[in-house]
Amino acid sequence: MYYPFCKNRIVCKPCRNERSFREALCKAYNISDIDFKCPEDIPIGAVVKENPIKKSNASNVNTELSKQRYEICKQCKHSTQEGFGCEFYKRCCFGRWRAKKESKCPEGHW
Length: 110
What we know:
It is a single chain. This protein is mainly alpha-helical. Helix content is 36%, strand content 4%.
């Protein structure tokens, strides 16, 4: 199965290595199995040094920045889907947009 959050490949490392991150994904996307299969065939607990981002997107994506902003989004009253979405950002690929340095939080949190 291919999940919407797998499109941009910026969550591979926390997804495969952090149970709490997978728990949030399962809750947000109504996934019943916390150890769901990865479309990139990365097993749970694997050492993921880099996310398998397509080269065309790699220069625009900062995974550490995205993770920091995700943590902020999870605490925001305007977040949807456990921080994977935002009431003010209705377009596609919120995670990829959030990872770009030039992107700004609609509420000014980052």
